[in-house]
Design brief:
Dimeric_a/b-barrel, Alpha-Beta Plaits, 3 helices, ABM domain-containing protein
Length: 102
């Protein structure tokens, strides 16, 4: 399985608009995406009010590519979010099974 961490920084003053998009569009879209095993959406903390994220666990690299295309470093951007976002970052990791919770 593949872990994908997708972070977004909104444009100044666009926090509320992006939050509405995040909750009303992005989270429901991700929850119904084929090949996605688990998604954890993250909303901003008070000290970083412009930062949002998704931590996703994909079945495999092929499932991820079916969603984003061959270049997995590219973000999947909904047209509704394009003007709200200042920057994005994406990182990928191999999922490691663990039975320990710290």
């Amino acid at each position: 399985m593949i872990v994908r961490i997708f972070q977004v920084v909104t444009r100044p003053g666009k926090e509320a608009a992006f939050s509405a998009f995040f909750h009303d569009t992005a989270i429901p879209l991700m929850k119904r995406t084929k090949g996605l095993v688990h998604v954890i959406p993250g909303a901003p903390l008070p000290d970083r009010p412009r930062e949002f994220c998704f931590v996703m666990v994909w079945e495999n690299i092929d499932a991820l590519k079916a969603f984003v295309g061959e270049d997995i470093s590219s973000p999947h951007i909904d047209p509704a979010e394009a003007e709200l976002v200042e920057s994005r970052s994406i990182k990928h990791y191999q999922f490691v099974e663990s039975h320990l919770l710290l």
